[in-house]
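Escalation from tier 1.

The customer reports that the assembly of two entities below gives different structure tokens on two consecutive runs. Tier 1 could not reproduce it. I'm attaching the input and our single run for tier 2 to review.
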Amino acid sequence: MNVNVQDKLFLDRFKVDEVSHLRIIDNKKCIKECKDQACLYLCPANVYRVEKDYIAVNYEGCLECGSCRIGCAKLNIEWRFPKGGYGVSHKFG
Amino acid sequence: MKEIFDVAIVGAGPAGISAAYVLAGAGKKVIVLERGEHPGSKSVSGGVLYGHDLARIIPDYFDKGCPIERNIVESRIWYLSKEAGLSLGYRDRIFDSERRYNAFTISRSKFDRWYADQARRKGALIVPSTVVTDLLRNGNGAVTGVVTQREDGEVRARVTLLADGINSPLAARAGFRPEPKPEQVALAVKEVINLPPEVINERFAISEGEGITIEILGKVTEGMDGVAFIYTNHSSISLGIGGNLADFATLKLKPYELIENFKQHPMVAPLISGGKSMEYIAHWLAEGGYDAVPKLCGDGYLIVGDSAMLFNTLHREGNNLAMASGKMAAEAILEAFKSGDFSENGLGGYRERLDASFVMQDLKKYRRLGSFLYNRKEVFTQLPELVSFGAREIITVNGVTKKAKERVILDKIRQVMSIPGLIRLMWQAWRATR
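Tier 1 run:
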């Protein structure tokens, strides 16, 4: 099934910071050394997408679960919480 | 901040607020730091709360305006194959009378906000929009407060309580708890689907204010060790599904596809038909059980709730364990203030209380369950299909004798797994919960 996660993320309220709270430490590692690229599958917000020779980080829709941080086989993601009050804000929770 | 607080609490969820309420009520100077714009704005749970541990902290929570969605009068369990499923339910009027609010559904965004307000009224200082990035320590390594992202953001306190939830880079950085391994957490996604209250009442055969819960196992997690759930709120349905994070990676499943497939299952689709999704959120569940619980306190600090991996997967108990542990931590902290000893030893009353309580006793009882489910994937693949096959054969009346039907079912089981294999599986399942 082809599901557009954007449609789901549109339901949520985000206060987006100008600076990303997620950073790939060494992009070469993702392309050259990481076979599985688990970040492309397990992220519930599809934050990570393959571009030509790197993985783009669309931090704006991050749901702050932390899965990419511990699921990355190379532990190649620097992960912080968004600045206080920023990021996703649950209406219902 | 120049002043020294008695207790600094990281996180305004059920664990942190329970502690704050008890401590502030006893006259302690308490500060609670919350990274969301208000308490609850970052919180996620399935949405069922057991009333018992809340009542031990605020006995008259209902009169104090606790935002309750629906009182749970029926609990169902579903075991689903791809296109069908077995349902088992228990409804009892006692849950509408003497045992009212044994369990009820909540919106965490509303509940956590209300709960934090109760602690504020007791005198706790709740500071939202503030991320704690590090801990302060003295020369001996004892924790003496926290560092926040704000300017001049150091907060000094005699005791620091970590109640920041399962996703805690802080606990990992401080060395209090290693980062969870992927197989120690489940990743769950949840949608809240709006429906008029009358429609919910009709579809679930309940009256105004009554609610039901459905816990779901089987093929819906597409081979992963995982669970799904459907809970009724006042005018919405909480629907979620999750699986072991390691399984997500191995099977290359996408969480948003998983939940979309789940919504289309023939037993699920009619319940949410016509509803409009209003939110999509994600969170971890602690799957590590008893063996993943870290050291619970040290010099100047304690760790409670989800931060301490206190979660009972089988009984979906998390919020109440958070509340119970928060209360016990607060009681131990009050003892420490009496003795003036804030060392690991002085705070040790927390560990003793927790060990003696249902929290650790239950986690110990189920300590083998996590690895059983993770290693016996048949529970999520062949077994639900076999159960559906058997039920379908027994229920169909078509002139075939019952004896012949039994043979067909046994043959079908043998095609998939040996009979001793099936017995072994049952035995292991039983052992895992003993």
